[in-house]
């Protein structure tokens, strides 16, 4: 079996990359996930051989069989992280080793092979080295990296696959919730995201596929995002369709739903909890019911609520709606706590502030 930690990457440059002037136009207003850069990283896995054939190639379509296992059994996982431009012109990733660990934890849950952390990080380095010119220079701009892996073996029997593809693609990114000072959430009445023993803690496509109908309902109701309650009692707040949620109270405490297998362990979530403890906040990872949320918002005990994630960073929650109820939080806009955490986190990510926890991973 090949030593995956020492794989050399072959490089095939794109014969017709996006012209610099066209790229500049795209980067002026990149949106989120709309444009894909010129290259991608691809690495193969086969049982008995391990990881092999690491390469950087022009971005383009994949050729797979209609019997490809991922199309039938959804054996697929992914990650999301960003490359940031530093003040000196260099580039850095934020806590990529945490993404590598979560990727492998997702792989374990989905009966997929682990990828060595060093190889995962090397793939990210290769991706940014190839397409670093795609990092937007606009305020808040970044290069969103999407590592993913799927079962590529061709068979129709129900079993874990023995062949996989690991791929990294990239997309220039601006604001996720553009032109929104705060977001409005819809409380799903009929749908849940995950159940105990399920795949809620894994970053797999099936979790997101099952949430789309609830997200579509939220949009129809005039909301930005859906918020899910637990599957057992339909009472406890868990997370949004694509990000975690936090609450700031009048006593200087911060609360967020606890991890327990049904909530994705967000890296932004973990970073904010660390920053909150550093700043002297009392931090609780405890259950919080939708009824208590409404009561605390009405009494003023709850000062702020905010969503957090790689894409959204820190986004204030202004209103919450559900079937037959609606309530507002604070001033329905950015609060002091959310803004403090966002400013501090972004400053670290972009190399403009001290990095006491060693989170920033500078790229050569």
Outline the structure in words.
With 364 residues, the protein is α+β, with helices and mostly antiparallel strands. The chain folds into two domains: 4-173, Aminotransferase class 4, branched-chain amino acid transferase, N-terminal domain (D-amino Acid Aminotransferase, Chain A, domain 1); 183-349, Alpha-Beta Barrel (D-amino Acid Aminotransferase, Chain A, domain 2), CATH 3.20.10.10. The protein is built from eight helices and 18 strands. A hairpin with a 3-residue loop joins strand 2 and strand 3 (50-58).
Structure summary:
The chain is of the alpha+beta class and 364 residues long.
Largest sheet: 9 strands, mixed
Cα separation of the termini: 29 Å
Question: Can you count the helices?
Answer: 8
Tell me what portion of residues adopts beta-strand conformation: 25-35%
Class based on secondary structure composition and strand pairing: alpha+beta
Runs with pLDDT <50, length 5+?
A: none
Q: CATH topology of the largest domain, which one?
A: D-amino Acid Aminotransferase, Chain A, domain 1
Rounded Rg? 21 Å
């Amino acid at each position: 079996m090949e030593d995956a930690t020492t794989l050399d990457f072959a490089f095939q440059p794109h014969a017709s990359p996006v012209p610099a002037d066209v790229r500049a136009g795209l980067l002026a207003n990149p949106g989120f996930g709309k444009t894909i850069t010129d290259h991608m990283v691809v690495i193969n896995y086969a049982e008995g051989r391990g990881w092999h054939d690491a390469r950087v190639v022009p971005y383009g379509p994949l050729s797979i069989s209609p019997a490809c296992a991922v199309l039938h059994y959804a054996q697929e996982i992914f990650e999301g992280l960003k490359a940031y431009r530093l003040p000196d012109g260099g580039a850095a990733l934020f806590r990529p080793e945490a993404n590598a660990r979560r990727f492998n934890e997702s792989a374990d849950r989905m009966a997929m092979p682990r990828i060595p952390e060093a190889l995962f990080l090397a793939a990210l380095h290769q991706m940014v080295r190839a397409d670093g010119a795609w990092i937007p220079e606009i305020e808040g701009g970044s290069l969103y990296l999407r590592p993913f892996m799927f079962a590529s073996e061709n068979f129709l029997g129900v079993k874990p696959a023995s062949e996989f593809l690991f791929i990294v693609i990239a997309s220039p990114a601006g604001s996720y919730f553009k032109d929104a000072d705060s977001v409005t959430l819809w409380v799903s009445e009929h749908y849940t995201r995950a159940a105990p023993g399920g795949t809620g803690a894994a970053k797999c496509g099936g979790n997101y596929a099952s949430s789309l109908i609830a997200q579509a309902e939220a949009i129809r109701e005039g909301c930005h995002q859906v918020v899910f309650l637990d599957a057992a009692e339909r009472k406890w707040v868990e997370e949004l369709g694509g990000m975690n949620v936090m609450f700031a109270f009048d006593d200087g405490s911060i609360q967020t739903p606890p991890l327990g297998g049904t909530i994705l362990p967000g890296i932004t979530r973990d970073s904010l909890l660390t920053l909150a403890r550093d700043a002297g906040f009392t931090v609780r990872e405890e259950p919080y019911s939708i009824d208590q949320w409404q009561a605390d918002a009405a009494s003023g005990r709850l000062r702020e609520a905010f969503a957090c994630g790689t894409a959204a960073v820190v986004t204030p929650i202004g209103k919450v709606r559900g079937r037959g109820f609606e309530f507002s939080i604070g001033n329905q806009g950015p609060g002091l706590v959310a803004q403090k955490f966002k400013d501090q986190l972004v400053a670290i990510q972009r190399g403009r502030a001290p990095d006491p926890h060693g989170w920033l991973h500078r790229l050569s």
